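Renewal narrative, Specific Aim 1. Our central claim is that a sequence can be written position by position from structural information alone. The example that follows is taken directly from our test logs and has not been curated for this report. It begins with the structure tokens describing the chain, in the order in which they were read.
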């Protein structure tokens, strides 16, 4: 669920297929568990692994188990003392954090970083 009134930023992703595309990050909140989240556009499963690796490398945690189903991928991990879930499917791409302060910190990193 998108929060159209939320803050949005963009991050250029250097990949062969997406060289000219720009990623957009919006603050949101998951409805079910009320966790603070970041919605990611474009919704593209190809971006799941580079973003997860970027977070794991930046915050020094092991790549978590990645669950796959017919619609997409999900992974659960801990980052900066907060539980987190990253999901991409046919309709949405988001990362939810148990702690709002961690979501805000990760969003700030996305705003100032480029995946390399």
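The sequence written for that structure reads:
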């Amino acid at each position: 669920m998108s929060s159209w009134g939320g803050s949005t930023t963009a991050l250029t992703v250097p990949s062969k297929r997406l060289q000219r595309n720009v990623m957009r990050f919006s603050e949101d909140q998951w409805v079910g568990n009320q966790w603070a989240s970041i919605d990611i556009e474009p919704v593209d499963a190809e971006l799941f692994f580079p973003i997860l690796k970027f977070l794991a490398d930046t915050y020094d945690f092991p790549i978590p188990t990645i669950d796959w189903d017919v619609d997409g991928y999900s992974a659960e991990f801990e980052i900066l003392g907060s539980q987190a879930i990253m999901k991409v499917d046919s309709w949405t791409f988001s990362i939810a954090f148990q702690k709002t302060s961690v979501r805000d910190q990760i969003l700030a990193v996305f705003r100032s970083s480029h995946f390399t």
